[in-house]
């Protein structure tokens, strides 16, 4: 949860309040974190096991982890709709969230249902750009007039 705190801390520092919109940003990062790290953990499972680090693929197996990545990806897509649903953002953000989320689901689905060794790292790398573009879309939507 600590990794998802910076938006809330920044919001509080800038406004002296903890707004529900800041909590939405926290929630997006909080839900994004598991599929991001678990895809890396699948790719590096043997290294984590040798180091004695109890990552999910080590403790519960790769198949279980693949399922969890897919479930969290579905949850992530739902959570990323909340800024639009609550009026925090507009159509620009919604379009970006849907497009970016569809690709995240595509990679998570392929990770779950196919056994290609490059897929965990492909999802991991995509998840980094996904979060950047999602938040960029939120900024663009906020500052670009749509009327």
UniProtKB/TrEMBL annotation:
What metabolic or biological pathway is this protein involved in?
Answer: Porphyrin-containing compound metabolism; heme O biosynthesis; heme O from protoheme: step 1/1
Keywords, ordered alphabetically: Cell membrane, Membrane, Transferase, Transmembrane, Transmembrane helix
Which terms in the Gene Ontology molecular function aspect does this entry carry? protoheme IX farnesyltransferase activity
Q: Where are the transmembrane segments?
A: 22-43, 64-85, 91-111, 123-144
**What membrane topology term does the record carry?**
Multi-pass membrane protein
Q: Where in the cell is it found?
A: Cell membrane
Name of the protein in its database record:
Protoheme IX farnesyltransferase
Coiled-coil region: none
Q: Name one GO cellular component term.
A: plasma membrane
Q: Name one GO biological process term.
A: heme biosynthetic process
């Amino acid at each position: 949860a600590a990794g998802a705190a910076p938006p809330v801390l920044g919001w509080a520092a800038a406004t002296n309040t903890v707004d529900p919109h800041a909590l939405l940003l926290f929630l997006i990062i909080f839900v994004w974190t598991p599929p991001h790290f678990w895809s890396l953990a699948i790719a590096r499972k043997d290294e984590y096991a040798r180091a004695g680090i109890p990552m999910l693929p080590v403790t519960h197996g790769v198949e279980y982890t693949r399922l969890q990545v897919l479930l969290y990806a579905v949850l992530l897509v739902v959570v990323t709709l909340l800024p639009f649903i609550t009026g925090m953002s507009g159509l620009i953000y919604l379009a970006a969230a849907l497009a970016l989320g569809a690709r995240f689901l595509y990679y998570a689905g392929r990770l779950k249902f196919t056994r290609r060794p490059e897929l965990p790292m492909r999802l991991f790398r995509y998840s980094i750009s996904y979060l950047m573009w999602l938040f960029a879309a939120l900024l663009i939507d906020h500052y670009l007039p749509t009327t």
